[in-house]
Specification:
By secondary structure, the chain is an alpha/beta fold. It has two domains: about 160 residues, Spore Coat Polysaccharide Biosynthesis Protein SpsA, Chain A; about 120 residues, Serine Threonine Protein Phosphatase 5, Tetratricopeptide repeat. About 45% of the residues lie in helices and about 20% in strands. The strands form two sheets. Strands 1, 2, 3, 4, 5, 6, 7, 10 and 11 form a nine-stranded mixed beta sheet that branches. A two-stranded antiparallel sheet has the order 8-9.
């Protein structure tokens, strides 16, 4: 059986940390907690589960904090969780089964991350994240915001899920503030970070700024396929908000790999109501993407 280090970064998580650690304590072989400046009972709660608690001054860089937590790990694999994550009972069972049979040649285990739920608690949005990363193989976190580990070597898709249950809203301006500080300091954003910077601008209703960033991101041609598709959609969203419906329609089909989804949405709308205006067609097609 392989061994696993749970590596976490936390700050003022007294309301959720115990729930998270209770769900994971019997699954892992050590727990690493890196605290980035808590002023509540977070470190006290963490101390009930581990004596490996380390301070790391917050520097507006999530990747740096996560890499610090991984640097203290001594087991075969590192697993990350946010404080408001939890492994449900059935996922704990699946995790232990995978841990028992996992081939040490596997470099990364991807696992479902449940982040959206309806009013009855049913999962409405889930995607795969790198959840177990083999220790001491040179892989590291990158990205001050929306940090990621790019998998190398053998990748396995696991069947245990991590469930993300927030109990309070996060700072809506934090990510944009971090990106803006990086740009003000002369840092050039790599493609994935540029994509998320565009999304933050969009969320803040800065349509023209977001459109410029998404267009630059697409023109660069180095983005992940799924991000390119999303950027096409967000170009259309921004153009629509700017009152440019014709341009928004063109944006929906400006890339080959986005064309199928966009054409399907537009075709479905026009099939239902062929006489719609361009503006209304765009509005309804965007809702289907």
């Amino acid at each position: 059986m392989v061994s696993v280090s749970l590596c976490m970064i936390v700050k003022n998580e007294e309301d959720v940390l115990e729930r998270c650690l209770e769900s994971a304590v019997d699954l892992v072989d050590e727990i690493i907690v890196v605290d980035t400046g808590s002023t509540d009972r977070t470190k006290e709660i963490a101390g009930r589960f581990t004596d490996q608690i380390y301070d790391f001054p917050w520097c507006d860089d999530f990747a740096a904090a996560r890499n610090k937590s991984f640097s203290h790990a001594s087991m075969d694999y590192c697993m990350w969780l946010d404080a408001d994550d939890v492994l449900l009972e059935e996922d704990q069972t699946s995790f232990l089964a995978l841990k028992e049979r996992l081939d040490p040649a596997v470099s990364v285990v991807m696992a479902p991350y449940h982040t959206g739920f309806d009013e009855n608690g049913r999962v409405t949005f889930s995607y795969y994240r790198e959840r177990l990363i083999k220790n001491r193989t040179g892989m590291s976190w990158v990205g001050a915001v929306h940090e990621v580990v790019t998998p190398v070597g053998t990748v396995l898709y696991g069947d245990f899920a991590v469930t993300h249950h927030k109990t309070r809203p996060s700072d809506p301006d934090r990510n944009l503030r971090i990106y803006q500080a990086q740009l003000d300091a002369g840092k050039e954003l790599e493609p994935r970070q540029q994509f998320y910077y565009g999304r933050e601008l969009y969320y803040h209703r800065r349509w023209e700024d977001a459109l410029a960033v998404f267009r630059s991101f697409l023109a660069d041609g180095r983005g992940w396929v799924e991000n390119n598709i999303d950027a096409c959609c967000h170009c259309a969203y921004c153009l629509y908000e700017l009152g440019q419906a014709d341009e928004a329609l063109a944006a929906l089909v400006m890339l080959g790999f986005a064309r199928a989804a966009a054409d399907k949405a537009v075709t479905a709308v026009l099939k239902e109501e062929p006489a719609l205006s361009v503006e209304e067609t765009v509005r309804r097609a965007l809702k289907r993407l």
